[in-house]
């Protein structure tokens, strides 16, 4: 049976914190050669939500430096501040409070609290602590997490508006390593589930959507490609194709052949 999260059967789009978006592809804004490439790749992706690492990218903290918002303006895109580079709940909460000030009271944020610099795996105890604080402070929290269904359920119960389990390590390009856990999270969740981290190419994005994810967030897979603008277009199409395939309902896998043409009534 095809599962719908917050969307009606006629597919109005991806709804997060009460706002509906046409695109189910969310993209990052780091690792590009320059701001012009950031602009071009973002446009090619068709994404409407752009995540920004507040600790690494200038969105007004330094008035003398180039401002990302000049090429991805908030008038056109939903800016999603994130806490990349934070390793404890206190730093993550402070970073997003700063982002709220810089973005005139903006509530939608992406929380990620990392465990160590080598794996960039989520520190789930600190993530849960930060999520609880941010939700109480009025933020709409989308949260990067492990692919543990119990942790994902706890984050939803805290009040997060979307859970974002990793497919594999951030920037690894390894694709979805544990589709079974991801399927369990999708099955139980009443909020959108988006794959975050590990996507390497278009087929990875399509598989995530075929599993029933509501969306995919990526950065390195596009920015690190030989041709980021072309890869951004490929990812856009992959997410759309994967979603259509999920809604269409694939045929079951079987160990015997099944002829494409009916055998009944054939000429002898």
What does this structure look like?
The protein is of the alpha/beta class and 268 residues long. Helices cover 35% and strands 15% of the residues. The protein is built from eight helices and ten strands. Strands 5-4-3-10-9 form a five-stranded parallel β-sheet. A three-stranded parallel β-sheet has the order 6-7-8, with helices on one face. Strand 1 (14-16) and strand 2 (19-21) form a beta hairpin. The longest helix has 21 residues, at 228-248. It is globular and about 80 Å long. The relative contact order is 0.14. The model is unreliable at 5-10 (pLDDT under 50).
Question: What are the SSEs and their pairings?
Answer:
Blueprint: E1 14-16, E2 19-21, E3 25-28, H1 35-45, E4 49-53, E5 78-82, H2 89-102, E6 108-111, H3 124-136, E7 140-145, H4 149-158, E8 162-165, H5 179-188, E9 194-196, H6 202-211, E10 215-218, H7 220-223, H8 228-248
Parallel strand pairs: 3-4, 3-10, 4-5, 6-7, 7-8, 9-10
Antiparallel strand pairs: 1-2
Helix pairs in contact: 1-8, 2-3, 3-4, 4-5, 6-8
Approximate shape: globular
List low-pLDDT spans.
5-10
Proportion of β residues? 15-25%
* Number of H- or I-type helical stretches: 8
Distance between the termini: 39 Å
Rg (CA only): 19 Å
Order of helices and strands: EEEHEEHEHEHEHEHEHH
Determine the fraction of residues in helical runs and give it as a percent range. Answer: 25-40%
Query: Biggest sheet: strands side by side, in what order?
Result: 5-4-3-10-9
Q: Structural class of the helices, strands and pairings?
A: alpha/beta
């Amino acid at each position: 049976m095809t599962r719908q999260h917050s969307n009606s059967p006629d597919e109005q789009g991806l709804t997060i914190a009460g706002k509906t978006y046409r695109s189910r592809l969310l993209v990052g804004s780091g690792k590009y050669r320059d701001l012009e490439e950031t602009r071009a790749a973002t446009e090619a992706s068709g994404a409407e939500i752009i995540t920004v690492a507040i600790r690494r990218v200038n969105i007004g903290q330094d008035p003398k430096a180039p401002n990302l918002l000049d090429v991805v303006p908030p008038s056109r895109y939903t800016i999603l501040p994130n806490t990349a580079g934070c390793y404890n709940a206190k730093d993550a909460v402070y970073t997003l409070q700063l982002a709220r000030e810089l973005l005139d009271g903006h509530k939608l944020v992406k929380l990620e609290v990392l465990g160590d610099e080598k794996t960039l795996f989520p520190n789930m105890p600190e993530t849960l602590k930060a999520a609880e604080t941010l939700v109480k402070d009025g933020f709409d929290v989308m949260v990067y997490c492990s692919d543990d269904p119990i942790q994902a359920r706890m984050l939803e119960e805290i009040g997060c508006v979307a859970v974002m389990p990793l497919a594999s390590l951030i920037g690894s390009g390894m694709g979805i390593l544990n589709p079974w856990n991801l399927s369990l999270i999708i099955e139980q969740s009443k909020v959108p589930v988006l794959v975050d981290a590990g996507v390497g190419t278009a087929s990875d994005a399509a598989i995530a959507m075929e599993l029933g994810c509501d969306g995919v967030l990526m950065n390195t897979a596009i920015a690190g490609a030989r041709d980021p603008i072309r890869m951004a277009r490929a990812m856009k199409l992959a997410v759309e194709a994967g979603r259509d395939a999920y809604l269409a309902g694939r045929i079951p896998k079987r160990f015997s052949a099944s002829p494409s043409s009916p055998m009944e009534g054939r000429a002898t």
